[in-house]
Fold these 4 entries.
Entry 1:
Amino acid sequence: MWNFATITDLVQNHPYLATVVLGAGTILASEVMWRAVKFSMGLIVNTKPLRVHEVVIFNELGETCSSLHYSNVRMESEGLVVPDLTCDNPFCSVKGVGKIEQQIDKAVYALDAAIYTFTSMALCEAFKRARQRGVIIRIIGDNEMVFCSGSQLGTLADLGVQVRGPSARFLMHHKFVVIDGVERVQEIQRLKQRKWMQDTRSVLISGSVNWTRMGFGGNWENCIITDDKLLTDSFQTEFSRMWISF
């Protein structure tokens, strides 16, 4: 047990060791005190992010609540019409599309999308917002559907988004997007020669649904949103392979 006499003897006879011991003690005491303060203020919380893992279903019931959403629209500063998202319909197409938008809005570095048909103006606006944040967007589309009525790929290409498609007669029928895929973020880090990159979460959005009005608001479709590493890595690898081959 240390007492005052022991500490005095240590300081007088072993000044260097005393400095180290007292310094370490001071640091430890200050850390304990700071943690006590944070605990009392409720600042210590579980910072582990929640999993992203859900299935979004689109079906014939998705539009039954459309009048609710668009009867009380609001205008954002950019002039965009934003529908009311208050709804009890579990199959609401507006809320379903909103879940996809929310993930796109969280993109930090990269969006890699392979979409057969893309006419959704809401998701096009989400891509525009991502580009304004500096997110690097790459899109693979089908060579025929890229020119279909209402396609948003031309609009995004005019803004500088890279768009590619296969020259083969077979369909590019994927409907997925990888957000901040590990492989792609690492590639961007090498290309930009950055020593440090912000922590990101890789998310995959994939399913049967085309990004169209009928896909989201009438057809029987599914969409999986997940941060599962095996799935995000697998889809990112396939996108990168297609991007090079196209």
Entry 2:
Amino acid sequence: MVPKPVKSLFKHKPKTPGDIARQARDLLVYVDSGGNGDPAPKLKEKMTDLGKVLREMKSILYGSGEAEPVPEACSQLTQEFFRANTLRLLITNLPKLDLEVRNDARQVVANLQRQQVQSRLIACDYLESNLDLMDILVSGYENPDITLHYGGMLRDCIRHQSIAKYVLEKHVKKFFGYVQFPTFDVSSDASATFKELLTRHKSTVAEFLSKNYDWFFEEFNKELLESSNYITRRQAVKLLGDILLDRSNTVVMVRYVSSKDNLRILMNLLRESSKSIQIEAFHVFKLFAANQNKPPEIVSILVANQSKLLRFFGNFKLDKEDEHFEADKAQVVREIAGLNQEIISNSGSGSDNPPPGSPF
């Protein structure tokens, strides 16, 4: 009888999802150390191994062309990934990785945010105990080489309401600068995160805006709506409409449309040469017109500009017919046409002259 080859007695045991997560951590520890003083070829080899491991993780989490993800495997991988503090190592060492490996890392992190283990999003639990990682991700906007990957990871993390609240309260002021960064990729990614912070978690946003109304909208108006940059103005007025038209922000909306300074800014935006900005400005302006408890100074400005506004809206049309838009415009016209000087007199204005700063 011919004996079996010896090598068949030592078959490699298939790696479990937990093994793969641990291997990723070990490789990231090696990268974090700078390669322990090893020569460059050795470090490059380990970087290649890390890329392979991240692709294995991605295959487990997303499945492959032949198979769907296996929930138990995803659960094991998720548990070990966060237990071993691998997310911290991945984030802090991301700038050292090749572009393709960064892309895989981003996809792995995105998926892990959604993985439940025993009905809990353990990614959220981990991030709540490691909030400084959000500080690192936000700082990515100051490094264009890493912006898109850190920015994407940041948006994945603020899917969790508690994490979004932390970023809002600690970092949102920085975004007034980030969204105006001269590099388009940076400003565009920052704008996407800014919008996500201010629209995704309704109750958190409403609470934040109520508590921080004065400084937030002062900055929003000055830095964004009155920016010299066309793209900044267009994105800002669109975001303003998204915020104010959300029912969760009704209290904030009523306060915003009671300000004559805000009305002046929106009327100036209606006069823009850009149709896109005009349309978005209209969606905010209609809230001023529809307010049934307009303060006297708002009524005064609208009456002073009544004929010009009615003439403007008479010629204001979309490129494609839109029944909803036409209905909104008709309502605005009725509101403005219904105002008259008697309303101002009754409100105590006592002046027939147009208010200073009337834009129309």
Entry 3:
Amino acid sequence: MATLSMADAAAFLPSSRAPHSLCEMDAIYQSVPHSSHRCKIAMRASADAPLCVEAVIADSPDGNPLKNGWSTRTNRLERGEKRLGHDVTSARGWLEHLEQECGAGAYTVLRCDVLCDGNERSWRVWGLELHLDRLCSSYGALREIADWEQCGFEEEAKAQTNDIITTLLRGAELAMRDNAEASADESTAQDAEGEEIARTLMLTVLWTPPATGNKRSIAKPTIRGHAAFIGGASPAQNGPEDAMPAPTAACLGIPIDPTPEALASLPRRYSGETREKPGPSAKISSWCRERRPLEDPSRFKPPGSGVGEVLLVRQCKAPNNDEDGGFLDALEILEGLTSNLFVIYKDGTVRTAPAEKVLSGYARQLVMDELS
């Protein structure tokens, strides 16, 4: 795929269309830790926010061995709960709080769809293997691990991650089952229309390094998970035309002062020859905090502008200051703050940034597989 130049940018100028937004969570989670990961959830009735929980892997206590040598501990997240000033009922606030408390870690976000047909529920977890592999590679880049075989904990870390995912999915399913009668989204739609109802759960998994030891130590990570539904219940999608999201307007992450020095002062994940570690292919939780200057409402996302994404750019050649637009012509477009970017031309050509310059997400992989 060819690199995107500023000539491709016209399609990404801000417009008046509102971006597709995600509803924040509004829930109470209650649980009793158990080695089989059973949990009980009490939920405040809400049409758009029925669950928000976290879970963490804990080593089994001495003298009380558990299956596989570890247990999954679930924690209650109260409505609007704050820790160190962060709203931990949102995945981003949860990640920023943990960075402040434990340091940066490797993370990934999985989309999990549940199909509700009467009392029957089935889950689809998208791209699980890709997410597990990316957790390993991101954590390895963060800790500068050159040889995973030498570490000896890759399979255990993946198994613990699967336990975290299973715990949170079971909790979500129990929440929907226990509150079906109180949920206007689910029960009303099913009783009135008899349709299958779909819901989407966003599940965040975080691997944080040990609090002690040097950066190159190969100690196994602490593994945590956070789950939150987005939006409300909706009829199950039947075809590609039903799956089209609402358009999201985007703008370019360009400084007010169009100079290379000003551009270098903005947050970035890739800078060319002086490439930062651990690099753009690693998904590191500190990016949630670092990218905030590019979300400044006074500059990049002004209220009412409809801008829902900011596209990262980098200087790929020396600007020609003798020409109008010389600075812009010296830039290339890489990716969004939380998304990958593809440009489709009228002749059917598709262009995107090279994989070594961006974070290759699951959706990007699906598009690349389809194109190939």
Entry 4:
Amino acid sequence: MAVKATKAEKKVAYDQKLCNLLDEFSQVLIASADNVGSTQLQGIRKGLRGDSVVLMGKNTMMKRTIKLHAERTGNSVLLNLVTLLIGNVGLIFTKGDLKEVREEIAKYKVGAPARVGLVAPIDVVVPPGNTGLDPSQTSFFQVLNIPTKINKGTVEIITPVELIRKGEKVGSSEAALLAKLGIRPFSYGLNIESVYDNGSIFSPDVLDLTEEDLLAKFASGLSMVTALALGISYPTLAAAPHMFINGYKNVLAIAVATDYDFPQAEKVKEYLKDPSKFAVAAAPAAAADAGASGGGAAKEEEKKVEPVDESDDDLGFSLFD
């Protein structure tokens, strides 16, 4: 018969397991586990088996172990995890892609009914349509100010009704109505609250960013830096091309207004002295454009012209001969 471990022995084993995971993994997802059942948690563990480990426990025990382990190893960045252990949370240690791990966890969310006194995590809207309830239930809907009508011997909801708002507590009437309609409005599972990666802490929303999002944000930041550098006349790599062009424009304006000359300004001065050169330079381009468009029109006309049937001429007589 196996001897059951004492509480002290269980704590030592838990402490050793957490220390081993902290040494082995550099990526940790901090997940809240409100209203998550043991069967559901077991399914998540099976789904993540291979490259991830789910560890649940008391916050005080996890904080104590992390602090002592950080002191022993000198790895002070682990202390960033301590501030995240608030509420009913667990740690998911992983070596896989963080986004893929989060998507795998999301597969195990299950629907749940609205229980009395529960804080609604989302807005609950009752859709319009036939409820299947008999007309004797209309008074129940009237208490909740839900517009209804009798259609074919059953109660029908006329318009969508916002029954519960996010953050509000579920009342007894709301819970009874949702139960009658067979609506399970809430879904529960491990919800990722924060991400720890090699000492850095960031929001799980970062995992949704794509390469296009990063490029767009970088381009936006680069344009702001360029505008600021140009505004205060501070040279930067991003603003340098614009500064050179603006400087060239200023020098060119001086050269045009005075007798000062330099190679890059000669052609501009020639055009200003003899505006007809503008027309000469523009004529070949205009002719090329016209030729291209004219050629296309000619081809279209050729396609539209149909050959004349000359079979009557070949016979040598007309219809009245």
